[in-house]
Amino acid sequence: MPDRTGPTSLVAPTRWPSVYHRFNGRRRSTITGLVISRPPAPQGHRRQTDKGPDVVTLTQDQIHDYYEQGYTLVENLFPQSELDDMNEELNRLIEEGAGKDAHGKGWIMQLGLVSKKTEAFCSDTRILDLIAPLVYPGIAIYSAKLVSKEPNDDAICHWHQDDAYYTKHSHSERRMSIWISLQDTAIEHGCLEVIPGSHQRGLQPTRTRKGGTCTLAMDVDIDLNERVLCPVKAGTIILFSSLLWHGSAGNRTNQRRRAFIVSYQETTVPCGNGRQWKILRTG
């Protein structure tokens, strides 16, 4: 039956099931009603350079997945040492009061403006190289934020589209977001959940919901049999369209779940969300 209440928790393994069959270009677990995201080439294409770290770019399969399904992912983009450093920086910012936000405990909005480290993370060339085939001409930042789920917090993030929020400030043809996991994120942590291909249905009507987060939620019937759950390892980056239907369940673990989220758009769009807008790469 269609569901209008938002993401719900599932009892399911945190590791990849051992048996898969192909399902619309994805791998589907043999567990009924659960589709776990696993794009065909999650590592991306790496090519060596003479200027520091290898350049990682999307494969043709990943680009195809993004345009057809509305999302794709690349594993191991950031090493654990960099994630540890970023988590320490975020802890410092929260201790200084940056995390006191009405959106949720431990959330930090306008993350690209609050410190030099978070600003540099938003404009990291590894990210820009990845999204270059998806965001053009040029790349500008629309917004950045830290989204946290505190331990044993059952608050859900309601099913929503980013553009329901973003079109209040500007309209874009190629706006998208990256979702970087700052720790291993299992299903029990409240991993990202998506409806593949939903970005092709356009911007949907909304209504404001009580409780949880992402309260400017979609006011449409959502068939949860279509959803894909995206448990990921630390350092994985999920790339998705600003029109993709997505949400997440509560955190049923004793660990904090953090995601560093940055939204980008083409530079021909003259503004973003306030002072966060900045051209990072010209077209």
What is the structure about, briefly put?
It is built from 5 helices and 18 strands.
Q: Can you walk through the features of this model?
A:
- This protein is α+β, with helices and mostly antiparallel strands and 283 residues long.
- It has one domain (63-281): q2cbj1_9rhob like domain (Jelly Rolls, Sandwich).
- It is built from five helices and 18 strands.
- It has helices spanning 60-69, 80-95, 116-122, 125-131, 162-166, and strands at residues 20-23, 26-29, 35-36, 45-47, 55-57, 71-74, 108-109, 139-149, 157-160, 176-181, 192-194, 206-208, 216-218, 228-230, 237-241, 246-248, 257-265, 278-281.
- The strands form five sheets. Strands 6, 7, 8, 10, 15, 17 and 18 form a seven-stranded antiparallel sheet that branches.
- Strand 1 (20-23) and strand 2 form a beta hairpin.
- It is globular.
- It starts with 19 loop residues before the first strand and ends with a strand.
- The model is unreliable at 1-6 and 8-34 (pLDDT under 50).
> Could you name the CATH homologous superfamily?
q2cbj1_9rhob like domain
Q: What integer value in Å does the Rg equal?
A: 18 Å
The CATH topology: Jelly Rolls
What is the structural class?
Answer: alpha+beta
**Helical fraction:** 10-25%
Count of folded domains: 1
CATH class: Mainly Beta
The major pleated sheet works out as: 7 strands, antiparallel
